[in-house]
Amino acid sequence: MFDGIDGIIWDWNGTLLDDSEMAIQVMNKILERRNIPQLSIDLYKEVFTFPVRDYYQKIGFDFENEPFEVPASEFIVHYNELVNSCQLHKDSVQTLTQFKNRGLSQFILSAMQQDTLNQCLERYQIASFFEYVSGLGDHYANSKIGNGHRLISELNLNPKRILLIGDTCHDFEVAQALGCSCVLVTNGHQSRTVLEATGAIVIDCLLDISDLILQN
How is the chain split into domains, by residue range? Predict the structure, then answer.
């Protein structure tokens, strides 16, 4: 199915890192302080989107009364306090190892702030799997497309030989903009229904994609 793939671009949050339930926990504390209705897991996976400013508006924030940067900064402070409590998805290391053993180059393209991302990779002892790690320069999770083009350019990659693996529709949009193939996994921040609407291949766990690649 993915003939000729020689590199993998990984999303981080939700794809390799199992942080969606913690993100809901943090957001519900912020919503409670503002008397905005709480999020269930199912509702969260239906409404979460990029840019995250749109997600905040969908769940009830009014930026005429409060600038987006206020709750966004509040979220990241609490998120960073709890991120060490998160684990990698159970099949993350196995999948990374299989791809490495197959000789595939691996990269990260994330909406997480760069310094925090680097610290996470060191803490989970997986930094050595990746040839290039790209995070964002601020906390507001804007589009990853620009950083993706930079990754492709700096490493002189052929996007037709790259597979991007993510857990959101935005990851699909990034892959389309870069000219890469894409697979989306349902273990993260958006539901299967939302992901399937993109037309991308959707899987339930990372080992499913390793099977698709390694069978070639």
Answer: 7-18+87-214, 20-85
